[in-house]
Design brief:
The structure is a homodimer of 408-residue chains. Chain A has 408 residues and is of the alpha+beta class. Chain A has ten helices and 26 strands.
């Protein structure tokens, strides 16, 4: 597919992608679609008549968030995608009004794409759960008895989910050194990342209803990169018996562009076999995993970036359909804009682990960065950048970047 | 204080109370204040000029939720309270337009009073934490090492918080009997209640900021009764290592009227001494506990009610100011309308326990109800009603009821 817009080779935002985001235009949060180094302003496009053939109310693009558009439903998403592909490959209204409708992406300020209702974090990588189990509970079996039966998850804090580029203030809190008798208060000394992806609910349910696994993906609008910053010292002291709390709730960063399930469709792949067989409500047909390359880079203040992890979303033991089906099996309702993160995505070897606590074996083996630096956990001034992309048969669909810098 | 409105003796909604709620008027959710068996329609009152002397924008009463009013700040809450007391004790505009502004409370349909952003559940009763520890971890010390240092809490599901009177569908899920090798799927057989109260955030903070314990109560608008329905069989299997999830997220019920901190002011009381001394950021001055009587009644289908628990909010080991200070000490931001529940409020003896699993000692000792019935956990058709009230020197400030019926 050739477009009259100049799309750099190897751009994450090819015409096969068309992800949605919210950018600032004249200080107003505005829905847009990324294409190459540009953004299509959806509100401006609606106003000049690019979408006259579409059957949903395009005043949803006047909103500060994508929730209203997402709530229009799957047919609306598909029709807009087809319309944009047509408009980008032929010279129609979009071409005619391009000066008004198309803006520069590289200089745009991005905002939160959705108003998040509830946020859930899963724990669905078997390598990560095993690695963390060894570190947090060294004297017992690392994988707990429920792990292979349940896509284990927990509720997280929605208010502190922030957009890529927002700096992170190092959190303070209680922790207790293994050798100490009592806890102490101070800045976290074991500040870490978690390499995750998150999906965004596209279709609400009513309290008391459950989502069948065969329809689960119909309730998913798209995905973003997710960095679940974690203060390991705070987490280690607080997490029994009710789970992580302040060790996580100070910040989680997402990438600004939501890549739709439709754009990800060509990148489905085989999954890891689940042993033992899961209960019937979690059994599925077809391929529910996705081949999405993931990379984590760390950039110390004033220095160059070192890649510290290369992982892949395909390593997930539990897939999104299973997570969402499990989440609603008790009748829990979900709403458009809710976010559900994967949990840390670790592969099999140390260079594919999704957190620094895993890579550094609990802080005991520093990782080597460029220019002679080393790290166990994050230091002030460090910037973490996560990138994600799919590539197949010359087609690239990427997520851009999810980055954040640690402030003292 | 005498009012020209007829207020029944012993009403929860005395002139000392004036709690806020949202009721349906002509099918439109409308902010109101309860007084005796009546509701003052705040939007109608604003329209006929009752609030002309107030310095905040009373168009906030056109909203479907109280968030916009709450966001006006503490001075607005206080000035409205004083105005209402004046209008109820003298014959002014409210008296003149009473036909338009005052409606019957007993026949009113109530709605969710606030749009909840995030919901947090604490675990702050030492008796409950000890009792549950014995039941869930019989082979180890019931109170975990962090419990006396941290007001332990976790994030809960906001979407499934519902208003009193909404029926509860018995949840399904995975559980594993202690004697079974593998989990099975089915309706919960150990459906329980948790007697809690929740406070509502009245003043937002910015990500990265913390609330000092001396100012913490300024961030609290008021309180409701909270029933954190719990499926103990689902919870027992899923909760390690990340905490309760589907065992809780199918429903939590709140009472419809938010009793303000100002109305609760006369009912402050001494607290339980905290041993060992807590870390400095959690140390406070003055009385931060409140004497609020709590009662739980169970009514089997077509039968009469039996009171199964009489507890009191004063039993809290950790107070609200400590909970909120701890919650934000890592920089986590809070928003107006966020809800924070106490955790189950148990007293020292079996008749003051706040959950059926505690009263029935893990389901082993059935409690006796009227007319020869017994219960360990909830059966289909059972209605649970929680009541809460303060009383002192002839002044009564109550919360009304928080009730829900179990559907199969």
């Amino acid at each position: 597919m050739n477009s009259w817009i100049d799309i750099p080779q190897n751009s994450d935002f090819s015409i096969h992608n068309l992800p949605y985001g919210i950018f600032l235009r004249d200080e107003k949060p505005t829905p847009g679609v990324a294409i190459g180094d540009y953004i299509i302003d959806l509100n401006a496009a609606a106003k000049v008549g690019v979408f006259t053939d579409l059957e949903f109310d395009t005043s949803v693009f006047e909103s500060d968030f994508l929730n209203d558009f997402i709530d229009c439903g799957k047919d609306a998403w598909t029709s807009l995608r087809h319309c944009l592909i047509k408009e980008l490959t032929a010279q129609g209204n979009l071409f005619e009004f391009k000066e008004k409708v198309i803006v520069d992406r590289l200089s745009a300020d991005m905002c939160m794409p959705v108003r998040i209702g509830d946020y859930t974090d899963f724990y669905s990588s078997i390598e990560h759960a095993t690695n963390l189990g060894k570190l947090f509970r060294p004297d017992s079996e690392p994988l707990l008895p429920n792990w292979r039966h349940i896509p284990v998850g927990y509720h997280g804090r929605a208010s502190s989910i922030i957009i890529s580029g927002t700096p992170i203030k190092r959190p303070s809190g209680q922790s207790k050194a293994p050798t100490a008798d009592t806890p102490s208060f101070g800045k976290s000394k074991r500040l870490d990342i978690e390499l995750e992806m998150a999906f965004i609910i596209g279709k609400s349910t009513t309290l008391g209803d459950s989502i069948n696994i065969n329809n689960a993906e119909d309730h998913i609008f798209g995905k973003v990169i997710f960095n679940d910053w974690s203060a390991r010292d705070i987490q280690g002291w607080e997490y029994v018996p009710l789970g992580p709390f302040l060790g996580k709730s100070f910040a989680s960063t997402i990438s600004p562009w939501i890549v739709t399930m439709e754009a990800l469709e060509p990148f489905r792949c085989e999954s890891i076999p689940q042993e033992p067989t899961v209960l019937p409500y979690l059994q599925y047909e077809g391929q529910k995993n996705f081949n999405i390359n993931l990379e984590v880079g760390i950039t110390p203040e004033g220095d160059e970036e070192t890649t510290i992890s290369e992982s892949n979303f395909k390593y997930m033991y539990w897939n999104m359909a299973q997570q969402l089906t499990h989440h609603t099996v008790n009748g829990c309702n979900v709403n458009v804009g809710d976010m559900m993160a994967s949990g840390t995505i670790s592969g099999r070897d140390q260079h594919s682990y999704g957190s620094m606590i895993e890579i550094s074996k609990g802080g005991k083996e520093p990782m080597e960065l460029k220019n002679g630096k080393t790290r166990t956990f994050l230091e002030d001034g460090d910037t973490i950048t996560i990138r994600a992309y799919c590539e197949k048969d010359g087609v690239r669909v990427g997520f851009g970047e999810c980055s954040g810098k640690i402030l003292p």
